[in-house]
Amino acid sequence: MSQKMDPKVFRDLSYGLYIVTSRNGDRLNGQIINTAIQVTSDPARVAVIINKKNLTHEFIDKSKVFAISVLVETTPMTFIGLFGFKSGRDIDKLSKTQFKEGVTKCPLVTEHSLSVLEAKVVDQIDLGSHTIFIGETISSEVLQDGQPMTYQYYHQTLKGKSPPNAPTFQAVK
Ligand SMILES: Cc1cc2nc3c(=O)[nH]c(=O)nc-3n(C[C@H](O)[C@H](O)[C@H](O)COP(=O)(O)O)c2cc1C
User: Fold this and answer.
1) CA 87 to CA 75: how far, in whole Å?
2) One pLDDT digit (tens) per residue for the chain, 173 residues
3) With contact defined as beta carbons under 8 Å apart, do 141 and 5 qualify?
4) Residue located nearest, by CA, to atom 15 of ligand 1
5) Torsion of CA 110, 111, 112, 115, to 10 degrees
């Protein structure tokens, strides 16, 4: 990390916790992200930041579609562990999860989710280790009321960690 950057400042930035999914033909996959944001309102566009090593990156890059599920605060750590610490290269995560098919044919994870949206990639920026995929929202649905999981709640209350592939990863010194 740059000497000019105090890591505490990065830790003060706030995020939510989401599952981003995509597909490659009939193959489905998804992973945890904290880096989902709305970037414009008209048209309604969202961005996600994905590590190039992840299978989800390969799927979004090929299909140019992705879906986001907003996780509820009561999401169990086992569920976050499945999507955030295991790769679809080793395990079929969607076979262990409730989802429905979206109009893009991306899986919309309905388990532990407050709401879902689907997007078509309209632009992408190569950041070296990661890519920012910018997508135009083409469907959205509220599934239930509830409190969204925040990154702070995940770290401070659930004592969760971030793996090296997360853009916000900070090595413990
Ligand atoms: C709390 C948390 C936040 C994460 N945020 C991101 C993120 O924003 N971008 C990213 O590429 N990976 C992030 N990850 C890591 C991926 O979820 C993880 O590398 C996953 O195993 C990739 O799965 P895949 O190979 O099946 O795509 C995060 C993981 C956790 C637990």
Assistant:
1) 19
2) 566 788 889 889 999 999 999 999 999 999 999 999 999 999 999 999 999 999 999 999 999 999 999 999 999 999 999 999 999 999 999 999 999 999 999 999 999 999 999 999 999 999 999 999 999 999 999 999 999 999 999 999 999 998 898 988 877 54
3) no
4) 166
5) 0
Residue 145 inside a domain? The answer is yes
Residue 165 lies in a domain: no
Query: What residue numbers bound the domain in which 132 lies?
Result: 13-156
Domain count for the chain? 1
CATH no. for residue 56? 2.30.110.10
Distance (angstroms) between ligand 1 centre and the Cα of 54 equals 8
* Pocket probe mutation, ligand 1, options 27, 31, 90, max atoms within 8 Å of Cβ: 31
The CA 148 to ligand 1 mean position distance, Å, reads: 18
pTM higher than the cut 0.90: yes
Q: Ligand 1 mean position to 47 CA, how many Å? A: 15
- Ligand 1 contact via 71 beta carbon (within 6 Å): no
Task: Give yes or no for residue 16 CB within 6 A of ligand 1.
Answer: no
Cβ(162)–Cβ(169) below 8 Å:
yes
